Amino acid sequence: MFRTFLFTALLAIAFFVVEQYYNASWLHPDWKILLVFFMSVSFLTGRLVSAGLQDDRERLVPMYLAATVARMVLGLAFIGFFLFHHIEERRTFVFDFLVLYICYTSFEIWALTRNLRHNS
User: Residue 93 sits in which domain range?
Assistant: First the structure.
């Protein structure tokens, strides 16, 4: 959880600097909502995987896949909600969402493989 919070804080600092000092057309004005969403989903999926691992180590793969599907479904619901409510700059919002989705998924895979290498 600490790594996810640190990763989110680094992204927030980077986005804040870009927003304040550069005129970045690729950065949506509501980037803070996206970061809060992804940090929340990462926390929830992390708890799901850790809860599944407490009883049986054999359940790692099914629990991780369930967490990935949950992240995808929550992401689709999140995007659908904002597109349904006619958010401004839709393409930028969807682009930022997809980039953050890939970043957080890659970060969680890296963290998982790092822990698996240490335990094997």
Answer: 32-119
Domain presence at residue 11: no
The number of residues in the chain equals 120
For 114, the token pair is 């790092």
Look up residue 115 and give its two tokens. Answer: 């822990």
Record the pTM: 0.82
Q: For 1, which DSSP code?
A: -
CA neighbor of 67 nearest in space, from 4, 9, 14, 117? 4
Whether residue 91 is contained in a domain is answered as yes
Structural domain includes residue 99: yes
> Mean pLDDT for each consecutive 10-residue tract of the chain (120 residues)?
85 87 81 90 82 72 82 92 86 90 87 64
Give the CA diameter of the chain.
50
